Amino acid sequence: MAAPSRVPGDMGVELLGAAGGARLPLCQLTEEDASAHPGLANLLLGLTPYLDPSGLSTPLARQLEQAGKELQLRRAAWLRWEALHRLLQEALREQRAGRGDASPSLEHRKFLETLEQRLLLGELSRILEPGPSLCGARPPLLGLGAPDLLELLPPSQDLALLRQHLPQEIEERLRCKGLALLSYHRPDSDGAGESARCAMLWPLAEGLAAEQRRLQAGRSRRRELMGLLERQRAAYPQVLLRCLGLLRRLALEHRLGAQAQLDQLNTHYLEVKCSAMFLKIRLEELSLLLDTYSPESVEVHRAIRAGLQGAVQQQEQELATAQKILATYESLGPEFEGLVQEYAQLCGAVENKRWALHEFNKGCH
Questions:
Q1: Angle between helix 106-128 and 58-97 (nearest 10)
Q2: Interhelix angle 156-185/194-250, nearest 10 degrees
Q3: Span of the secretion signal (predicted)?
Q4: Which of 136, 229, 272, 349 has its CA 20 to 30 A from that of 332?
């Protein structure tokens, strides 16, 4: 057997797509696994001819399919006999409860009694029938066997009556069950006649089988969708993590990298704006000064300023002269201080006498 050709790394990712997903056995293989381990996809592709989509080997899958078909046949046979058995048990229960005919005929009553006896003998025969066991042949229950039940069989004429009326009884009850099922499945058929409803029973089985097939197809489709949902649910977190990593890298490389340049431009813009604001304030100040002081006012203020500066200079000269004289007086010693005080008193007395003379002269005139 020739070895399968090697699958390249990108082929492993391609096999995980919608078109190639059916080529691989059932597994939880992600794109990262296929990219990191190219041989894994190659191995799975090599195992594909020997495995079915569920993961079983091909011979085992065929045996399982054959066993499933045989199980379906046996189940159908069991259901057929079980339905007949339950139908007859229901007829017997109705007879015991008195829900049948108000006054059943002797022949019908005899038929039901024979049927009940025959059903009981059948159940007893199944119970007493020896079956295989781990310890070999199992002894019969209570020491009784199937031949012991032959003595309890109804008379031959009653069995003949049972064989004669049993098909009619089963047919009638099956017809009633079918009409009840038809009323449930198609409520609009209740208004039709008896013959029309009986005619509707023939395609009823095909319709129910088709509806069952649609239901099974829907369930199979639902299982496929649930599997796809699980795979997508497992793949989406990986995709979201990759997207988050990409966004983080873009934020680090572009957004934060350009933030320093943006801050520098904003700083330069604010500096220029502050300089323009200061110039505007200075312009407003000069405009106010220009509106407040006219050229004539400026000349007058200049003249006043020149006069004030001359007076200040004169006072400063006088202050310097007085300080110089005071320093000279202080250098003469304490004896001169007494003379200065006496001179000051004499000057005060002279000034008082001058004032008194002036006042006396005003009084004489």
A1: 140
A2: 50
A3: none
A4: 349
Q: How far is CA 132 from CA 16, 129, 137, in A?
A: 52, 10, 6
CA angle 200, 206, 208 (to 5 degrees): 90
> Over the stretch 132-187, which tens digit does the pLDDT of each residue have?
554 455 655 566 666 666 666 777 777 777 777 777 777 777 777 777 777 777 77
pLDDT of residue 9: 40
Look up residue 111 and give its two tokens: 């038929």
Identify the bridge partners of residue 20 per DSSP, sorted by sequence position. Answer: none
Angle at 174 between CA 170 and CA 180, to 5 degrees: 150
Domain edges within the chain = 334-365
CA–CA separation, 47 vs 29, rounded Å?
15
> Of all residues in the chain, what percent are helix, strand and coil, respectively (each to 5)?
85, 0, 15
Cβ–Cβ under 8 Å, residues 88 and 115: yes
Task: Go through the chain and tell me how many residues it has.
Answer: 365
CB 12 within 8 A of CB 38: yes
Give the contacts of 46 (CB within 8 A, at least 6 positions apart). 3, 4
The closest of 57, 10, 70, 53 to 35, measured between CA atoms, is: 10
d(CA 169, CA 109): 13
Q: How far apart are CA 49 and CA 30, in angstroms?
A: 21
Structure confidence at residue 6 (pLDDT):
40
**Phi and psi angles of residue 279, each rounded to the nearest 5 degrees, phi first:** -65, -35
Q: Which residues of the chain have pLDDT under 50?
A: 1-23, 25, 134-135
Ranges assigned E (strand) in 54-180 = 132-133, 136-137
> Average pLDDT, whole number, for the chain?
76
Task: In whole angstroms, give the CA distance from residue 53 to residue 253.
Answer: 45
Whole-model pTM above 0.90?
Answer: no
Q: What are phi and psi of 294, to 5 degrees?
A: -85, 170
